[in-house]
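User: quick one, sequence for these tokens?
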């Protein structure tokens, strides 16, 4: 939640000042602050600057949340280093699958993801994990708005096959279903406010044994991050590292 941290420390700030302070491009800042204002983590003043929203009732609460969000980012960075993978957290926002936070690793192939980007629920591991947790009505509404578009020859096109994969709760996988050369695995995050998932994206050239090792690293990390996010009842973007 880098934007909230900066506002807490230096606010009120304009979107341009937030972009300059965080290094996040201005277009992404606008998308993030819209969500943060909607979720009441930030509020917009009459002159267009941003201040802390009503989600932060006290300074002590703000400090506690900021500390836990930093711990989440640190955990994601350690996970990226240990697995040589991109690490992302995604969730269901206004009925769509979106990236909340992203930590990139130079050894992993390019994936073109950043906080606020929508992911196809049927073609990504994070998306599948989130849809698996969604209530049946939420999932049906999502799939009615988002047909099973083919991104590669490996993309799931049959709804029956997708439903079978969503029935497996522990780990979700996308093997070159969204991008050729990219494999993703994701674990569910126990966040009370909304379905969420922690995912790894890495080269599809890795051996089966190496992928098994990634799964063994991912699950404990998901448990730790779940505890931090549940404590703060997060339901929106956390920022970018």
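Assistant:
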């Amino acid at each position: 939640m880098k934007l909230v941290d900066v506002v807490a420390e230096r606010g009120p700030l304009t979107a341009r000042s937030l972009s300059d302070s965080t290094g996040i491009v201005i277009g992404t800042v606008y998308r993030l602050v819209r969500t943060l204002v909607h979720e009441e983590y930030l509020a917009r003043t009459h002159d267009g600057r941003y201040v802390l929203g009503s989600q932060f009732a006290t300074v002590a609460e703000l400090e506690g949340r900021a500390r836990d969000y930093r711990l989440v980012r640190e955990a994601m960075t350690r996970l990226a280093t240990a697995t040589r993978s991109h690490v992302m957290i995604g969730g269901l926002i206004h009925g769509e699958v979106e990236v909340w936070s992203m930590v990139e690793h130079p050894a992993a192939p390019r994936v073109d993801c950043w906080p606020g980007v929508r992911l196809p629920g049927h073609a990504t591991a994070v998306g599948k994990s989130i849809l698996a947790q969604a209530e049946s009505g939420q999932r049906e509404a999502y799939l009615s708005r988002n047909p099973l578009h083919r991104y590669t020859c490996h993309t799931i096109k049959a709804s029956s096959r997708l439903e079978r994969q969503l029935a497996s709760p522990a780990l979700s996988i996308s093997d070159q279903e969204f991008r050729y050369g990219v494999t993703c695995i994701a674990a569910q995050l126990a966040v009370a406010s909304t379905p969420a998932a922690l995912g790894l994206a890495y080269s599809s050239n890795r051996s089966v044994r190496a992928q098994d090792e990634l799964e063994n690293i991912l699950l404990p990390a998901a448990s730790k991050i779940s505890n931090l996010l549940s404590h703060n009842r997060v339901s929106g973007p956390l920022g970018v590292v």
